[in-house]
Design a protein that fits this description.
11 helices; 9-stranded mixed β-sheet; globular; 21 strands; about 30% strand; about 375 residues; single chain; binds flavin-adenine dinucleotide
Amino acid sequence: MENKLLNKVIVYGGGVVGGLASLCLKKNGFEVCQIKSDVRRTIDRAYALSPGSVDWMRDMGLRDKLFNSLYPVENIEIIRQDSKTILSADSVFQPALAYMVSEKNLMKEIQIKLSSEDIKTFPEPKEINLDNSTDEVQIKLEKETLTASLFVVCDGANSKIKEHLDIRKKIKNFNQNAIVFNFETSKNMQKNAKQYFLGDSILALLPISPRTVSVVWSCDQDIFEKLNIANDSEFILKLKSIIGNDYSEISNLSSKSNFPLTMVLNDKFFDKRVVLMGNAAHSIHPLAGQGLNLGIRDIIDFEKCLKNNRYKDIGLTGFLRRFERSRRIDTFQFSKLTSGLHWAFSRNNKFINEALIKGIKLLETKDNFKNFLIKKAIS
Ligand SMILES: Cc1cc2nc3c(=O)[nH]c(=O)nc-3n(C[C@H](O)[C@H](O)[C@H](O)COP(=O)(O)OP(=O)(O)OC[C@H]3O[C@@H](n4cnc5c(N)ncnc54)[C@H](O)[C@@H]3O)c2cc1C
């Protein structure tokens, strides 16, 4: 490979993972071009970021304004019928289990940092014209052709680039839709979250301020269709039938957005000089709030590989295989854990239900195992 190409990297994708990957590569001395769509998302969403993701993001030079806006979650109550267990940050001597962030704020701060760096941006082409060889990787855009040693793909679960690669994907349809919305409550919920595992849905309530709750309600098709046509008072009535009076008065219900839920797993992380990160590499059920954290850990592990290996050419198979190995266990464990939990909690089977209730009661008495689960989720 020509020496001047060795330092060039193209990042494809303008989401959180694409933005952070561009910043990280730039920080590590690469010449970065980012290709992203011009379309801006209008809806805002809240993400639960793990403490590990937040610590690493501080090193990316994002402004304090972002970190000051994060809302910590200290406890999560897991509820199945009349059994419950509390996962608590205190039990592992941590200040929080997760930090809630608004996607809009996060994207805005990433964008500000990207604009202050010397990172060239290009609009996504209408058609993908990719030439991926063992020597270099090239993409034709509307006005120019970009060439690099490595092409980092972060264009999400429905990645267009992946269609042009020799990578096989397995798709599992959960037959669920997540309804995402916020509401305000008259009671101060402090820093406590709740997650209800119901037979036909999973309801997660996460505080984003003392009196504002962000909700992800993953629903089977039947209940989704009913909720989707319900007016606000019918919707609140259904919500209250589950959460009871825990949140006192509910007001200011926001508009709702829906996300069909699927799991996408690939047989590999890279093909020649193209590597996948974020949802393009793995997409999981949101019940553990780990999808974006997994994507951030892709970048963290890529950076570790950069620092621990003296590869001049990071598009070489040897380097990319090391990266792939570093990500296999984490992505496998979380995709199995989330799809397994989804499977178990959505069975309409008396014996499985009794086992789950016993399991939750047992968890309440086994601090070591509970703390192991907490440590895994906050990494
Ligand atoms: C209901 C739900 C709740 C979730 N909650 C959590 C959570 O609490 N914690 C967690 O870690 N993960 C959560 N996830 C997973 C998380 O949303 C994804 O893992 C994450 O968004 C993947 O980021 P990405 O950059 O790889 O892909 P995407 O965000 O899908 O980005 C891919 C492409 O989408 C476009 N795009 C993305 N963002 C923008 C934008 N702001 N403006 C314009 N274009 C954009 C760009 O074209 C980009 O190239 C949740 C997912 C769902 C469905």
